[in-house]
């Protein structure tokens, strides 16, 4: 069974006003806590990474522990944490300290300033770069449904963006972000990465922001399309589905099944539709490339990965959690429902704070 780990970015907010707070430096500087959390591009963010796990209940427990600890550490400096992929309130974020962040700010200007977004990255173990690239080539059509499922960023600068995941639209401004063509081999993958770095546009391999990439730190495929989820259970659901996709793709690779013939143009359209609709409207079906209800597309995703999920004892868990999300809604829907009930974006943040620390 493949191990899976999660990286989550959390928003630091004022406990009363809900406004983003630039206090990550104070949290990270606390004596004796080196390595607990990581800095992000903006000081209004905090990131944690779980250990790799093979059992989803273990992963769920660690995600909850990290969220709770992040909230405790934030409270020590007069803030709270919220699992929100964008701020529902207006924000003027502060670029983090350090040479890397200064370079990004100078090189990319307003794009860097406007990146106060929180994502969720899923790492799944692979045996080699060759297997990893074979996986990346084969999971491409199924990544937009994961974005739709995780969508948790309807608001931007105090207004409803009209999108379920506006974070993904902001993130797509980076020149290396988004879907890529089929690579075909690890050699070809590394050649393309090298060619991109040779242009001088990107600082280093850490700026290879593909929707799915070979991790430059771990022996994993890293899937980077998801918003940070409001509910910890939804994070674990996305992680289980990603592991199912990776295992399914690895089996297809071993059996000699080719990667789907779909272009970057269609993938970009599917990602746009997923960001716009979330799970409340039509998505682009990864098998027909025609519009289909989100519930239909997610059922197809479950069917596509069902053998791998069954072999890892995740099938019943995924089926149950998927039904729950479709019934209660994802983070984007909850945010909008809270705002519709209260008319107050501060209430949206307050609700997210309580859900994050629960």
Automatic annotation (TrEMBL):
Keyword entries, A-Z: ATP-binding, Ligase, Nucleotide-binding
Transmembrane segment boundaries: none
Catalyses which reaction(s): L-cysteine + L-glutamate + ATP = gamma-L-glutamyl-L-cysteine + ADP + phosphate + H(+)
A Pfam cross-reference name: GCS2
Gene3D superfamilies for this protein: 3.30.590.20
Superkingdom field: Bacteria
Enzyme nomenclature, EC number: 6.3.2.2
Gene Ontology MF annotations: ligase activity
Alphabetized InterPro entries for the sequence: GCL_type2/YbdK_subfam, GCS2, Gln_synth/guanido_kin_cat_dom, YbdK
Assigned protein family: Belongs to the glutamate--cysteine ligase type 2 family. YbdK subfamily.
HAMAP family named among the record's database cross-references: Glu_cys_ligase_2 (MF_01609)
The protein's role, per its UniProt record: ATP-dependent carboxylate-amine ligase which exhibits weak glutamate--cysteine ligase activity.
Designated name of the protein: Putative glutamate--cysteine ligase 2
Organism: Streptomyces pactum
């Amino acid at each position: 069974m493949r191990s899976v780990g999660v990286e989550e970015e959390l928003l630091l907010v004022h406990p009363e006003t809900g406004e983003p707070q630039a206090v990550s430096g104070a949290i990270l500087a606390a004596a004796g806590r080196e390595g607990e959390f990581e800095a992000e591009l903006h000081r209004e963010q905090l990131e944690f990474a779980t250990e790799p796990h093979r059992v989803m209940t273990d992963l769920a427990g660690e995600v909850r522990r990290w969220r709770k600890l992040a909230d405790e550490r934030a409270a020590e400096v007069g803030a709270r944490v919220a699992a929100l992929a964008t701020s529902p309130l207006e924000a003027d974020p502060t670029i983090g300290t350090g040479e890397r962040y200064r370079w990004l700010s100078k090189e990319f200007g307003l794009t860097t300033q406007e990146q106060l977004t929180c994502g969720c990255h899923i790492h799944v173990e692979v045996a080699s770069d060759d297997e990893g690239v074979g996986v990346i080539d084969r999971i491409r059509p199924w990544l937009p449904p994961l974005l739709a499922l995780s969508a948790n960023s309807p608001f931007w600068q105090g207004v409803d963006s009209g999108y379920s995941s506006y974070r993904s639209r902001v993130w797509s401004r980076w020149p290396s972000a988004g879907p890529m063509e089929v690579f075909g081999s690890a050699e070809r993958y590394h050649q393309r990465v090298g060619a991109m770095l040779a242009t001088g546009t990107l600082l280093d391999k850490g700026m290879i922001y593909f929707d799915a990439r070979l991790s430059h730190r771990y022996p994993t495929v890293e899937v980077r399309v998801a918003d940070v989820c409001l509910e910890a259970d939804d994070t674990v659901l996305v992680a289980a589905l990603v592991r199912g996709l990776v295992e399914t793709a690895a089996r297809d690779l071993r059996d000699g099944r080719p990667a789907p013939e779909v272009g970057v143009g269609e993938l970009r359209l599917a990602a746009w539709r997923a960001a716009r609709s979330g799970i409340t409207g039509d998505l682009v079906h990864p098998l027909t490339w025609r519009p289909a209800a989100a519930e239909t597309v997610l059922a197809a995703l479950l069917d596509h990965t069902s053998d791998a999920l069954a072999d890892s004892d995740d099938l019943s868990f995924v089926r149950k959690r998927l039904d729950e999300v479709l019934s209660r809604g994802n983070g984007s829907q909850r945010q909008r429902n809270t705002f519709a009930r209260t008319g107050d974006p501060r209430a949206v943040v307050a609700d997210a704070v309580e859900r994050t620390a629960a």
